[in-house]
Amino acid sequence: MHHWLPSSLDTGWVRDACGYLAGSLVLCSFSVTSMSRLRWLGIASNLSFISYAIMVGMLPILILHGLLLPVNIYRLFQIERDRRRPGGALPDHSAPRFMEGATRGTMNANAAWPISWQPKISKMPASSWEMC
Length: 132
Known about the structure:
This protein is an all-alpha fold. The protein has helices spanning 12-29, 35-56, 59-84, 100-103. The chain is 53% helix and 0% strand.
């Protein structure tokens, strides 16, 4: 353990539990369809990873999640602000207003890509004889 870590946190099971909790929260975030729930899970995951990084002494993880935590908090604030705005009540699964231009109204219902990203496909020849 590191000399700057209090000896009361020098228990391996607490450290391991914090790491497993952080990883589990990230795994759960992949199944969430709500932006609000995703941000809440992100915040909980960031806090767990920050705790784990402090206990293990991993500075890169501490820096990464220390930077991601305020981003998740700010985006959650934006989602909640937009939800409370008159006429701003959004279905729980839709994108918040700050993402409107990038997501809403740009998808073709039958396409996997936004309309502006769909490749232009020309008619392919049916056989090599048509190429001549």
